[in-house]
Every structure is written in C-alpha cells, then in structure tokens.
Amino acid sequence: DSGVTQTPKHLITATGQRVTLRCSPRSGDLSVYWYQQSLDQGLQFLIQYYNGEERAKGNILERFSAQQFPDLHSELNLSSLELGDSALYFCASSDSPSAFEATGELFFGEGSRLTVL
Amino acid sequence: GDSVTQMEGPVTLSEEAFLTINCTYTATGYPSLFWYVQYPGEGLQLLLKATKADDKGSNKGFEATYRKETTSFHLEKGSVQVSDSAVYFCALHTGTASKLTFGTGTRLQVTL
Predict the structure, then answer these.
(1) CA atoms of A10 and B65, how far apart (whole Å)
(2) From the centroid of its chain, how far is CA A105?
(3) Strands B23-26 and B3-6
(4) Which residue of A97, B25, B96, B100 sits 20 to 30 Å from the alpha carbon of A103, by its own alpha carbon?
(5) Which pLDDT score, from 0 to 100, does residue B1 have?
(6) What is the largest CA-CA distance in chain B?
(7) What pLDDT, in 10s, does the model give residues B73-89?
(8) Which pLDDT does position A102 carry in this prediction?
C-alpha cells in the first residue's frame, strides 16, 4: 500500500460527458502528479501541483483540468470526453516540490480506469 | 526533449532464468535514472535508481548500472521467480524538470 488513494477505481461513461477523478496523497506529501497510461502512448505526464499551486504542466488537453485543495487532495476533471480518453489515470505524490531533492521517489495510487463508450 | 526507449515485450521466461530488459535514454544534462515496477492491479512502485554515471542501483535481486557512454540503464536479475511477473518501466529525471519521463514499459511473464 503506497498510501495514495484514488477514487473511483473504475468509471464507465459516454462520449461528451464529464468526470472527476479524485486523489488523496500520502500523509505529509505536498506534491501531487497526474499521469495517463494508455496502450498506445504509454505513461504520459499530465500535470503537477505543489501545496495548492500548479508547478508543471505536461501533455494535458485543454478539455482536462486539475486542482489541488487546501487539504492537499487533488481532482482531475475530464470534460467533453472522447473515445480516445479511455485510459488508466494515475495519481502520484512525493515529499518535495521537484520529487528529486529528497528520496527521488514517486508514490503511485492504484489508478482510476476510465472507459468512454 | 527527454525520452526513454525500452525493449518491447512481452518477455516470457522460465523460473530461475536470467533476465535483461534493455533501456536507453536521451536527455539534456545529466539525468537520474529509475526502474519502476507495476504488479497486476497495482500502481507503480520504485524498484531501484541511480543518480550519476557508473552508479549501480539494486533491490530484490535486480540490478541496473548507469552507463553514460552508451546512455543505457539495463535491468538485470540472475534468477527470476514467478512473483517477478509484472510490467517494468524505465524512467529518467533531469534537474530542470519536475516530472519523470517514462518508457513504454516491458511486460515480464515468468512461468514454472
């Protein structure tokens, strides 16, 4: 158990819909990362937050947005869903803003599997 | 930009066989290198890491050596077990980035 909790574990929805994925980081971790894992693109970095502020942005679509709340949990919002958005979405946390000044380790949740029909 | 290339899977081995999973990278500067493992139904977890050239990371019988001259970080294990069946990801981080760049992953299946 990594200590990172993601909900829901599975989600099935239709094209055009909007969903919200939730992540609770490990206790004490200020930094949260979102990754998308799909069969054809591998593991893609989406976005990072540190203590409520956006720290780095990767290949995140404009239809997607994220935020980190004062209690440090984070949400990833996916809207106007398309078939190609079907993937496993991972949240990870670390105990430093860059993740590599301390242990150099990210702690991953078990992921939220999104299926768009 | 930074990138990681891993050998395609799946890799199927018999128990006690020798394992090598190749990983090469392209990066600006001097990256830190990682191997993560994803067991079925779980998230990724760090297996080992190396932060500078010629460093050897090791854990649970797995080893990888940071080779700057060949830009490689191949994962090896002398004798695999069925419990090693998982997907293995090579990853890198450079000092100017706050994210890990992952390879596409290599699925390992170990049979009795």
Answers:
(1) 38
(2) 16
(3) antiparallel
(4) B25
(5) 82
(6) 45
(7) 999 999 999 999 999 99
(8) 46
